[in-house]
Design a protein that fits this description.
The radius of gyration is 17 Å and the shape is globular. The chain starts with a strand and ends in a 5-residue tail after the last helix. Helix 4 packs parallel to helix 6. It has a seven-stranded parallel beta sheet. Helices cover 39% and strands 18% of the residues. It is α/β, with parallel strands linked by helices and 202 residues long. Helix 2 links the parallel strand 2 and strand 3. The chain has one domain: HUPs (Rossmann fold).
């Protein structure tokens, strides 16, 4: 791998950031022998409604607080690049940092529905991908359209250390300790607590 820096990319709304994001990132640093993991906080996820979405600056600050790791870099670079879609972001990052070796990091829930993303097959051809197992999504992810389409590009977990240097398309399914936390569950619990604080008649 020579002197190339190996960077894991974890994209999303981070609405809010939580320990599940951090768990995957810390695991990726070790499993994939990465130099850093970048959190790409999206200005606005095109697949998610704007209603209920915290302001970008608030999500960025929350992510910085949760990350709390010298090798996890929280960035709003998609705003700088002017991109909204993952395929476009990856294309520009690969062009801007030609000496870096990127790996796209995502949960099994995203592999299960990535076929609904814009130019999703391009994502597989732009960078290697590490897919981290998530509760209840294993079978759905591994039988998804994306998993079937790129079945010949799947690598064994033993190849994780060299994944960043492997030409795309290449992906690995990582059987990591499952973390059930989700941003949706956090938002639901916050709303429940706020409702409980409201006084009758308010």
């Amino acid at each position: 791998m020579g002197g190339h820096r190996r960077i894991g990319l974890l994209g999303g709304s981070f609405n809010p950031a939580h320990d599940g994001h951090r768990d995957i990132s810390v695991a990726a640093l070790t499993y994939l022998d990465l130099d850093e993991v970048w959190w790409l906080v999206s200005p606005q996820n095109p697949l998610k409604p704007e209603k209920g979405m915290a302001p970008f600056s608030e999500r960025l600050k929350s992510a910085q607080t949760v990350a709390d790791h010298p090798r996890i870099r929280v960035t709003g670079i998609e705003r700088t690049l002017g991109t909204r879609y993952t395929a476009d972001t990856l294309r520009k990052l690969v062009t801007r940092f030609p000496s870096y070796r990127f790996v796209w990091l995502m949960g099994a829930d995203n592999l299960a529905q990535i076929a609904s993303w814009r130019d999703w097959t391009r994502i597989f051809h732009l960078t290697p991908i590490a897919v981290f197992d998530r509760p209840t999504y294993t079978i759905k992810a591994l039988t998804s359209l994306a998993a079937r389409r790129f079945r010949r590009s799947r690598r064994r977990e033993a190849a994780l250390k060299t994944l960043a240097a492997t030409p795309a398309p290449a992906w690995v399914f990582v059987h990591h300790r499952l973390n059930p936390i989700s941003a949706t569950a956090i938002r639901t619990e916050r709303a429940r607590k706020q409702a409980g604080k409201a006084k009758p008649g308010e």
